[in-house]
Amino acid sequence: MEFRNTPPRQGHLKFKLGNRPQTEKLANGMDLYLINVNSTELVRVDFMFKGGQWMQEKPLQTAMSMKMLRECIIDSSLHKIPHYIDYKGVSIDVTSNMSYCVLSLSCLQRYVCEIIPIIVSVLNNLPFEEDKFRIALEQSKRSFEISMDTVGEQCKRLFYKSLYGVNHPMSRFPEYVDYDSLAIHDLKSYCNKYITAPNCNVFLTGNLTGGFVSDFINTLQKFGLRNDCGFCNFPIYELPKHDKRYVLEMEKPLVQSSIRIGREFLSRTHTDYIPMTVLSTILGGYFGSRLMSVIREEKGYTYDIHSVIYQMPLNSSFVITTETGNRYVENVIDDIYVEMDKLSSELILEDELQQVKNYMFGNMCRNYEFGFGFSNRIMQLICSDIKLDDIVAGAEIISNITSNELRDISIKYLSPNSMIECIVTNT
Q1: Predicted confidence (pLDDT) at residue 286 exceeds the cutoff of 90
Q2: Inter-axis angle of helices 184-194 and 61-74, nearest 10
Q3: Please, which residues have CB within 8 angstroms of residue 13's CB and are 6 or more apart in sequence?
Q4: What is the pLDDT of residue 79?
Q5: Of 135, 151, 165, 332, which has fewest CB within 10 angstroms of its CB?
Q6: How far is CA 71 from the centre of its chain?
Q7: What is the C-alpha separation between 322 and 303, in angstroms, rounded?
């Protein structure tokens, strides 16, 4: 058997966007995106509503509204959906984040027009029942109680409250009292404003042959307007002044401490956003990143450490996250700043930069492949007011960016003085 002494040569990947979805504006104000994937019999329908947790007036309002919509759809006393789920491979899921919430149906093509009328009926009528609402709320509360015992959850809360202030949507985390004060009328109030046809984008992805699309569109037209429906205009919040370090000491004994270091950052439309994503990837965005190589592989302080830019409706946040043994907290923080300083004082070698570019292009090719993942990306772009042409332009920026440009970006945004540190540890 022949063994290699040197790794294979790296190629230079390029990103090329394939087919684009067909779009159609329906009479009730909905935007429909058609993404044809002939290689599968599966079809997925996504109802995306702008707003998300950013627009909710009370904690839990968005997540519980979506949860109750799903419960109403699969309620056996109203419909025969459980039969489809148990015997015909149908799944109905809901998700919500800061920018939008999604109700998704996945099934074989022949079942789409049987199930969509049920979904539209629930969206129109909002048949929430008090007993089922209390059960769903109790289930959510139990998951909340478990997460509150973890240092990761506590550090996330501490970080966003310290960075944005307690009144910012990113900082309005649910508390125990919120589970007692939430009522069905809060859910209906949110749905009447944002779960509406004009605020909805529908994505039909999968095998679109066979002539069922026209029946599907006719059913969607029955999703009506509401008297108090509103369009989503994300409000702007001022950021407070903050200290350098915030420490939360938990009373129970902990094996590990949680660390978050970061800062507020720019919106996705800013010219520095794409270069910063390259820099974040080099620092801690993949398994071969500098933070992983030094803090995990070389020194063994942690199992996982990564940096990421979290996208929000109007801006973003740059965050480095890790957990480590209690006695290594200061060592890890010092090493993070050492690696940040290297990016500001030394040029990145061409081999490392090309490897990161290839990694990012590989992710982009997978994310924008014309299939089910493609619709997920389109949702994110819509809420960020980004066009597909902007993605192609962003790929060109990544391809042409130089070490000198990245060093300038690091000097501009990765100064330790611009970061806050949040630590959750033992008393």
Answers
A1: yes
A2: 90
A3: 357, 358, 361, 362, 365
A4: 61
A5: 135
A6: 23
A7: 8
| 114 CB-side CA count, 13 A | 15
Pairing mode of beta strands 200-206, 245-250: unpaired
Q: Do 126 and 197 form a contact (C-beta atoms < 8 A)? A: no
Using CA atoms, how far residue 240 sits from 144, 167, 170, 309, 421, in Å, is: 28, 10, 13, 20, 16
State how far the alpha carbon of 294 is from the alpha carbons of 285, 302, 338, in Å.
14, 10, 10
User: Which is it for the CA torsion 252, 257, 262, 267, positive or negative?
Assistant: negative
Q: Check whether 82 has a pLDDT greater than 60.
A: yes
> Over the range 375-395, which residues count as b (16 or more CB within 10 Å of their CB) and which as e?
bbbbbbebbbebeeeebeebb
Q: Which residues contact 9 (CB under 8 A, 6 or more apart)?
A: none
Judge whether residue 353 has pLDDT over 90: yes
Beta bridge partners, 46, equal 104, 203
CB neighbours of residue 65 within 10 Å: 25
- C-alpha to C-alpha distance for 425 and 324, rounded to whole angstroms: 10
For residue 265, give both structure tokens. 């950052």
Q: Give tens-digit pLDDT for 192-209.
A: 999 998 889 999 999 888
**pLDDT classification of 13: cutoffs 50, 70, 90:** low
Question: Helix crossing, 388-400 with 273-284: angle to 10°?
Answer: 60
CA–CA distances in Å: residue 309 to residues 17, 25, 275, 296, 394: 23, 33, 12, 21, 16
Mean pLDDT of 149-163: 94
Count of alpha carbons within 13 Å of 389, Cβ hemisphere only?
Answer: 0
